[in-house]
């Protein structure tokens, strides 16, 4: 089966006609882990430590994936389960994730693995947080050992949304490790991207067919008040900082970060051309408002302008923005894959409308000549949403968190229809 998987991946590298239709999840958001930093950060895990119980129900969930008709599945491997303490490596957990991969391959579903999706073992974040030089060594040791032991995977995401990890964990302090320090944030970003570079090389040494990227969250930015020069300025700064700087970094090896109303920071990093594709997570448009009382003088707001409404999390639904971020990312001259796009809503019709509107924009972008090779809906099933608990219903399948029952939504059937009817 591994040989078949490699040849399929090789074909996907060289053909624009074979499109990856998928769904995306992360291990911690489905499985939890008592050894992860987030388990100590959010008290909800005291009441629901297994979240959806995906760790035990993965076979059932892969059947759901198969029933959708997708040909790819993006998921993460939970580091804290494999290495719950610094000096212990749980081989049984590695075997568990290998079983997941093998079952996907047996069902002709291409696995795309995320190595780091926000969570860490508690020991790592206490002793070697990302702003310390030792963090590079420790994460690389973990990744190297895992890569040597995992078979049947060509598609890898090294880090999911590294900028969000830095903004939340080092500037706002709202997620682990909970710092509020710009200097530490810059050190952490540097170390994470050095890790990406070194793991990129490791993956290619291990597998000549490897396809490696990060998953970068991109948003569309707009001024809260178009006539306000401060709103327009911070919109421009945010757009470059959040969307464009990492793309420029992969093109040039230099990340230039404009800090609002402060000096511009330049980071020289060994990441030039260290991409085989570029993963884009797209959800919303954000309106930027100057607020001198806020950290970095910025306030983020959402409002419904185009009539698509807001999600249950209050985010604006803005399908046109997908083409805007794809168009800019295309300057990387590597294939683009939409590694996340989804909506938190309990309204099935709204979810269907969201999917259709974004796929329509995707189709238009491809016809325009933008090289997009895949689309992964977030998420397969309802899950834990960072800082929002269990109420943000992203899933194509609803989850009853009392008994872990999966309930198909009308959006699941619609997504299956889309996959069959759209020929990219």
Automatic annotation (TrEMBL):
> Which biological process, per GO, is one annotated for this protein?
carbohydrate catabolic process
Top-rank taxon, per record: Bacteria
Listed A to Z, the keywords are: Glycosidase, Hydrolase
Q: Which residues form the active site?
A: 340
Q: Does the keyword Nucleotide-binding apply?
A: no
**Which GO terms fall under molecular function for this chain's record?**
beta-glucosidase activity
Gene3D superfamilies, per the entry: Glycosidases
**Signal peptide annotation:** none
- GO CC terms: cytosol
Q: Give TM regions.
A: none
Which one Pfam family would you cite for this protein? Glyco_hydro_1
Q: What is its EC number?
A: 3.2.1.21
The UniProt similarity line reads: Belongs to the glycosyl hydrolase 1 family.
Question: What protein name is recorded for this chain?
Answer: beta-glucosidase
Q: What is the species listed in this Swiss-Prot or TrEMBL entry? A: Thermodesulfovibrio aggregans
């Amino acid at each position: 089966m591994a040989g078949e998987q490699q040849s399929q991946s090789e074909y996907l590298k060289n053909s624009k006609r074979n499109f990856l239709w998928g769904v995306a999840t992360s291990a911690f958001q489905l499985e939890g882990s008592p050894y992860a930093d987030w388990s100590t950060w959010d008290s909800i895990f005291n009441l629901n430590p297994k979240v959806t119980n995906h760790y035990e129900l993965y076979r059932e969930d892969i059947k759901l994936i198969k029933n959708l008709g997708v040909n790819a599945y993006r998921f993460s491997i939970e580091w804290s389960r494999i290495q719950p303490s610094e000096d212990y490596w749980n081989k049984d957990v590695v075997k568990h994730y290998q079983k997941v991969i093998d079952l996907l391959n047996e069902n002709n579903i291409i696995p795309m693995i995320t190595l780091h999706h926000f969570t860490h073992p508690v020991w790592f974040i206490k002793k070697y947080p990302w702003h310390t030089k030792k963090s590079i060594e420790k994460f690389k040791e973990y990744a190297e050992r895992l890569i040597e032991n995992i078979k049947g995977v060509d598609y890898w995401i090294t880090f999911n949304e590294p900028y969000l990890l830095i903004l939340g964990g080092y500037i706002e302090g709202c997620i682990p490790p909970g710092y509020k320090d710009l200097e530490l944030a810059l050190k952490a970003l540097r170390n994470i991207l050095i890790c990406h570079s070194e793991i990129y090389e490791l993956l290619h040494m291990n597998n000549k067919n490897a396809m490696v990227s990060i998953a970068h969250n991109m948003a569309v930015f707009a001024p809260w008040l178009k006539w306000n020069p401060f709103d327009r300025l911070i919109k421009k700064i945010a757009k470059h900082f959040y969307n464009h700087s990492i793309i420029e970094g992969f093109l040039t090896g230099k990340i230039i970060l404009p800090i609002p109303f402060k000096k511009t920071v330049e980071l020289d990093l060994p990441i030039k051309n260290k991409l085989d594709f570029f993963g884009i997570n797209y959800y919303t448009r954000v309106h930027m408002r100057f607020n001198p009382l806020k950290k970095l003088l910025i306030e983020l707001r959402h409002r419904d302008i185009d009539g698509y409404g807001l999600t249950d999390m209050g985010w604006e639904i803005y399908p046109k923005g997908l083409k805007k971020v794809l168009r800019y990312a295309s300057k990387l001259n590597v294939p683009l894959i939409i590694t996340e796009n989804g909506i938190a809503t309990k309204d099935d019709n709204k979810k269907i409308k969201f999917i259709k509107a974004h796929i329509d924009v995707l189709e238009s972008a491809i016809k325009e000549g933008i090289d997009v090779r895949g689309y992964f809906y977030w998420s397969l099933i309802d899950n834990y949403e960072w800082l929002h608990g269990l109420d943000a219903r992203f899933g194509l399948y609803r989850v009853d968190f009392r008994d872990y029952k999966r309930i198909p939504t009308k959006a699941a059937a619609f997504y299956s229809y889309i996959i069959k009817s759209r020929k990219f």
